[in-house]
Structure formats: structure tokens, C-alpha cells
Amino acid sequence: MASRPADENFAHPYFPLDLHLPHYRENTLPFHVVVAVVVVSFAVAFLATWMLVRRDRFGRVLRFEEKAILCWFGMSGCIHVILEGYLTLTSGTIAGSNTILAQIWKEYAKGDSRYVSNDTCTIVMETITAWLEGPGCFLIVWAFITRHPMRHVMQLAVSIGQTYGVLIYFITEYYEDFSHGPLWHPIYFWLYVIGFNAPWAIIPPLLIRQSWRELCQAQRALDKVNGYMPPSDGRGASSKKKK
């Protein structure tokens, strides 16, 4: 790892080496405490949702898969609104703050310093995630519990947003040569950048596929009710059923 200049403007643990953060204050909590707080908080949000979403409004017991998906959205909603929402509200001063949420972000920023340098693209992305996708996650939980017809539309929309966000996150960092953290570092790169973001690169695409299939099935059923037959002439045009 490259050595850092002795100038006080560089007295922080972030990359690139010349990143200017004159208001930076060192965390008061050690690394393992911050990571433990994050993991426990995620687990609490997941388990709390698990306890709350046992049945739908008709009294039917939810299947394991249904509960797991709703717990994913419950946990994601808490992360988006609380953790990422805090970042969007304090992005300009977060490097100099030592609240528990600020210390979480300052620790994570050791793998990606864009989260303490008020990077425009990152903050815009996180603002959309926090204030659109976050409430959207909670709305999905409510829609599935109440069996609202919009439930798969909302799941599709939020999952597309989450997938788009994680793609922007990695693609922009790739084009900047992963210059905002120590590449291949076992904690800062593999745990923080890859590990903590991996669920949002894997689960939302699976939920997009599920909602896509459900919505296509619903459209086929609606077409049947409305008297439309599937294409049969090979040209992709639907024909009206003869009465």
C-alpha cells in the first residue's frame, strides 16, 4: 500500500491519497464494533419483519418463500430510509461527524471514499434509493399482506431500481479504476464493496424475473377474458376470438 503524505490535509484513511477532507474526524468506535452494529441491525430488521408477516389479510399462512421475500423488502426499506437517508441529509459534513450512522459510513468509506467526499453521482443515486425505493419497499410488504393487485408492479419497479443502482455503483467505480479504495483488500474491498453489495446484485434480478412471470400470466388471463387469442399466424398479431 502506498505511503501517505505527512500533510494534515491527508490525515485520513481514504483513497485517493490526495483526497481533501479537512473536516475529517477519526471514528471513536473500533472496526469490529461498527461492523457488528451493522450486521446485528440488518438481522434485527429481517427478523422483526419475519415476526410481523405471518399471515395475509385473509388469514392465510404465508409460505416460507413469501416471508423471506417480504423480510428482504422490510430489511431493505430500513437500510434505504435510515442508513442511506442519513447519508443524503449529511453528505457534506459526514466525514467530520461521529454519530453512530456517520461512523458506519466512515468505516465503509475506507473501501469507497465517495461516501465521505460528497460525490455528486453517489449522493444522487443514494437519494433516489433512500426516498423512492425505501418507502417503496415498505409499500411492497403492505401490498403483499393485503393482496393488493399492485404488489407485483411495485416489486418489479423497486427491484429494477435496486438493480440499476448497484449497476451504476459498480460501473462508475470500474470506469474510475476503483480508485476510491485499496483494490483487493480483504476487508475494504471484498467485504465492504463486494460482500455488502452482493445481495443487491443477486436478489433483485431474481425478483424481477418472478414479477415478470406473474404479470405476464395476469395479462394472458386478462386477454382471455377480453376475448383475445394468442398469435397464431406467425406475424405476432393478436386476433379477436370468434363468437
TrEMBL record:
Transmembrane annotation, as ranges: 29-53, 69-89, 123-144, 156-175, 187-208
Keyword annotations: Isomerase, Lipid biosynthesis, Lipid metabolism, Membrane, Steroid biosynthesis, Steroid metabolism, Sterol biosynthesis, Sterol metabolism, Transmembrane, Transmembrane helix
Amino-acid biosynthesis among keywords: no
Presence of keyword Lipid metabolism: yes
Family label: Belongs to the EBP family.
Membrane topology: Multi-pass membrane protein
Name of protein: EXPERA domain-containing protein
Compartments reported by the entry: Membrane
Record domain EXPERA: where: 65-208
GO cellular component labels: endoplasmic reticulum; membrane
InterPro entries in UniProt: EBP, EXPERA
GO BP: cholesterol biosynthetic process
Pfam families: EBP
PANTHER family: 3-BETA-HYDROXYSTEROID-DELTA(8),DELTA(7)-ISOMERASE, STEROL ISOMERASE
Organism, scientific name: Patiria miniata (Bat star)
Gene Ontology molecular function: any one: steroid Delta-isomerase activity
